[in-house]
Write a structure and sequence with these properties.
CATH architecture of the largest domain: Up-down Bundle
CATH superfamily of the largest domain: MFS general substrate transporter like domains
Shape: globular
Radius of gyration: 21 Å
Distance between the termini: 25 Å
Largest sheet: none
Length: 404
């Protein structure tokens, strides 16, 4: 089945997943950071104190996600979706009315947990569970929701903030989530493909497993380093991208414009990868996702091989290929290995691990840079690390295929 036919048959529920991914941007770092200057001024916070509070609430969100994320396995999707939107809306209201640091902390927790955490978790888990035969294509399609809204949210936010102020923008977001987005998403849950227990067991085969079985499976630990490699390494590099640009004499204008190529590459590769996963399986293809990221770091080792004007474009295009491959592969990997009956519990655990790694990355990379270690040396270590991660993932793939 091609993408056009698949979309025609399941447009309603695919739009549900697409929208859940897109709406998660209300709780993403880039969106909250656009309010950063106003928040620091309103509460008398320094960069360090605001960053510390933000990291603390992000880590607390990851811990709670271990418990809240598994509820999607037990509740009807409509009830879980309502739970997510009510928590999400509460975060926007807390931010809109915040007048004390405690209220700000609550707002950050709710936005990170229900927005960045559970909104995307709902979209991917429900989609991966609903389409066992077309999982790669389905995950690739809904992942576009994040990229699409990421492109328009900043501009809309700037316009709204100029109209109603920074706290007013959060109150408008709360109204949008509660009065428009939530009813629409609850309506779209009606289009969820209904798989009864027998269908789910048939789709899962002998792979159905709970979180306890997953943590006892050696393949999980072989795959986890590669699974977390892109979020960890790229969070660290993107957070310090101005330092990178200065080190290689890249203009910030060129770096910013290269992100357009990065986004387009990510979208195109993701759609291609989705079809390949449905044909060959995520387990076979996942070990290959490290290759373009290692190539991106290699461009920092030998910058003279690439014309200066093209270097940021090559670097970010290769990262776009990596993320385009990773998004559908990682979204399909766990259900392919461990089934879908407890997918919410499994994904909440792996998502928490990813959040922990991304919270640590800026501090870790910052300490290395402050120690005077060059980006060329950092790139060498990253390439070696990726090679090890790829080898471990390949071993897990061989073990899985040998047991089939």
């Amino acid at each position: 089945m091609n993408y056009v036919t698949f979309l025609r048959r399941h447009i309603g529920f695919l739009f549900f997943g697409f929208s859940m991914m897109g709406l998660s941007n209300f709780g993403q770092t880039f969106f909250i950071a656009l309010h950063g200057a106003d928040i620091k001024q309103a509460f008398g916070l320094t960069n360090t104190s605001f960053g510390g509070l933000y990291s603390a609430m992000t880590l607390l969100s990851a811990l709670v996600l271990l418990y809240s994320g598994r509820l999607i396995d037990k509740w009807p999707l409509s009830r879980f979706t309502s739970f997510v939107f009510l928590g999400f809306t509460a975060g926007c209201l807390f931010m809109g009315f915040a007048s004390h640091i405690v209220m700000l902390a609550m707002a950050l927790f709710f936005l990170r947990h229900f927005g960045q955490g559970l909104s995307g978790h709902t979209g991917i888990t429900a989609t991966a569970r609903a389409f066992p035969e077309q999982r790669g294509r389905a995950v690739a399609i809904i992942q576009l929701g994040y990229a699409s809204t990421e492109a328009i949210f900043p501009l809309l936010l700037v316009l709204v903030m100029g109209w109603v102020g920074w706290q007013g923008s959060w109150l408008m977001a709360a109204g949008f989530l509660l009065l428009i987005a939530m009813p629409l998403q609850l309506y779209l849950t009606r289009y969820e493909p209904k798989l009864d227990k027998a269908d789910m067991q048939a789709a899962d085969g002998s792979q159905a497993a709970g979180r306890a079985e997953v943590v006892r499976d050696k393949r999980f630990y072989l795959l986890l380093p590669l699974y977390t490699s892109s979020p960890f390494l790229l969070t660290g590099m993107f957070f310090h991208q101005v330092n990178l640009a200065n080190a290689y004499d890249w203009s910030l204008v060129a770096l910013a414009s290269a992100f357009t190529l990065y986004a387009l590459t990510k979208i195109g590769v993701s759609l291609i990868m989705g079809g390949l996963i449905d044909r060959f399986g995520a387990v076979r293809l996942f070990p290959l996702v490290f290759v373009p990221l290692a190539g991106a770091f290699a461009t920092l080792l030998w910058p003279n091989l690439i014309p200066l004007a093209l270097a940021p474009y090559v670097y970010l295009a290769l990262i776009g290929v990596n993320l385009g491959m990773t998004a559908p592969a990682s979204g399909s990997l766990w259900p392919e290995l461990f089934g879908t009956q407890n997918l919410g519990a499994i994904r909440s655990m792996t998502s928490s691990i990813v959040i922990f790694s991304t919270a640590a990355a800026p501090v870790f990379f910052g300490a290395i840079i402050d120690a005077g270690i060059s980006f060329a040396v950092i790139s060498q270590f990253c390439i070696v690390y990726l090679l090890v991660c790829g080898a471990l993932a390949f071993l897990a793939s061989r073990i899985t295929l040998a047991n089939q």
